[in-house]
Structures are given as structure tokens and as C-alpha cells.
Amino acid sequence: MLLCVLVCSYSDWLVTLGKRQSKLVPMMLLRIPFAEAGGFFLASSAVLMTLDLGHLREYLFVASKGVVPKLSIAKEWLAAYQSLMIFFATIWRFYCNEGRSTRNKDGTHSSPGILTVIMAWGSFAASTGLFSLIVWGLLEGLPDSDMQIHASFPAHMKADIICLQTLTLVWLGYPVTSLLARLGHIGLPGSYYNATWSTFKDGCFAFLDITSKAGLAIFFVLKATWVPASVENGLITAGEAYLNITYS
């Protein structure tokens, strides 16, 4: 299962290598330097997927001639917030053991100190806050279906918006799963992790990883079969001219 998750985590990069001629393709070549990063592998994948979705949002801004508003927060900042979010989540889960009791040398358990509790739940709150900011940054201002019809969006651009919304909102499963697993261990020793909850948590995270990262790959593969790169590049060229976007 782990191998499957790891492969699917980078499938969005692998399947788009043959589509470099399109300006739409997310800048996934940035993944290469991280390929051998060991424990940083999955974290870098999450950060770079934020860049991918931000790139898709920027494409929609240009291709829609501004109907889809420009990102309020640059995609590079959103990716940086993703790194901080993972950092705080790591403190909560591993350094503070989710604010649970600690095991002593004699086998007994001690309640966590007040500073540990504050650090644990403060880190969880900080991670959740950053997560909310990332989701808001990617989805803020997207036109509803009526506005899309009024602006005569082509079908493939409507699909882009659905893809962006779906793959961003599916991330909600991560904090929900973590919180449910923590609530399921209230009153249990901090060194004990219930096998049922562990399986539930691993299964949910595997599903979320595959759905989000492989979902992006599947979307672009399917889209490449019915939307020529020339069509997308034409929309970008027209949008750049309409918005008076120039590159030095």
C-alpha cells in the first residue's frame, strides 16, 4: 500500500511530462530535486501540489480574461504556508504526541504539562489556520455556474474549475481524520495507539493522498485527450492581450 501511495503521490508529475508544449501544464519539473529527499518526500509533494493548483488558478485568470480573479495570495506564498502547516502539524503529532500522556521509565504514564498542552493544541490551531488560509487563497472568488454561463466559459474551463475546487476541498479530510483519531484516544495511555484507529487513519490518509495527487494526474491525462494544447495556448494568448500582460 505504501508503494502505491508513493507512486500515486508523484503520478501528477509523471503523466504530464509529455505535455510540456502546453502553457497549462503545472511546473512539476520542480519535483525532480526532491525525488531523493527521503522523509521529505511526501511533504514536498504536498507543497508542490499547492504550486500546481495555484498554477491552474493563474491559468484560469488569464484564459477567462479576468472573470476568474487573480490570486489574492501568490501561489509561492501559499506553498510556503503549506510548509509551515506541515511543520506545526509535525510538532502536534510527534514532538508533543498530540498532547497525550507520556510514558515513564517504570512503565507508568504522566499527564502532559501545561506547556506541552499549550504547545500541542496551539500547533494544531496554527496548522488548521494556515490550512484554512491556503484553501481560501485557492478558491476565493471563483465564479459560480451562472457567471460561467454568462461569460461563455467552454466546457473544459468549467472542468478546470471543478477540478480545482474538488482537489482543494478534499484536503479537508486531513485535519478531520487527525482530529477524529485524537478524540478516539481520549483517556488512553499516550504510548498506546488503538489498532482500529491506526488502520482508519492510515486508510484515510492513503485515500486522500491518492485522490488528490493521482486525481490531478488523471484529470490532466483525460483532458489532454479532448482539449488540444493549441486551444489552451490560444486562450492564454488572447487573455494576455486582453489583460495587457507582458513579460520582460
Provide an overview of this structure.
By secondary structure, the protein is mainly alpha-helical. The chain has one domain (23-102, 109-185, 193-238). The chain contains ten helices and two strands, in the order H-H-H-H-E-E-H-H-H-H-H-H. The relative contact order is 0.15. Mean pLDDT is 82; it is low at 1-41.
Give me some keywords for this one.
single chain, 248 residues, 10 helices, 2 strands
Write a concise synopsis of the structure shown.
By secondary structure, the protein is mostly helical. It is built from 10 helices and 2 strands.
Spell out the blueprint of helices and strands.
Elements: H1 2-9, H2 11-14, H3 41-63, H4 75-95, E1 102-103, E2 109-110, H5 114-139, H6 145-150, H7 155-169, H8 173-183, H9 195-224, H10 229-242
Antiparallel strand pairs: 1-2
Helix pairs in contact: 1-9, 3-4, 3-7, 3-10, 4-5, 7-9, 8-9
Task: Sketch the topology as an H/E string, one letter per element.
Answer: HHHHEEHHHHHH
Count of DSSP-assigned helices: 10
Give Rg in angstroms: 21 Å
How many strands, what sense, and barrel or not for the largest sheet?
2 strands, antiparallel
Query: What is the strand tally?
Result: 2
Overall pLDDT metric:
82
Number of self-contained structural domains: 1
Q: Into which percent range does the helicity of residues fall?
A: 55-70%
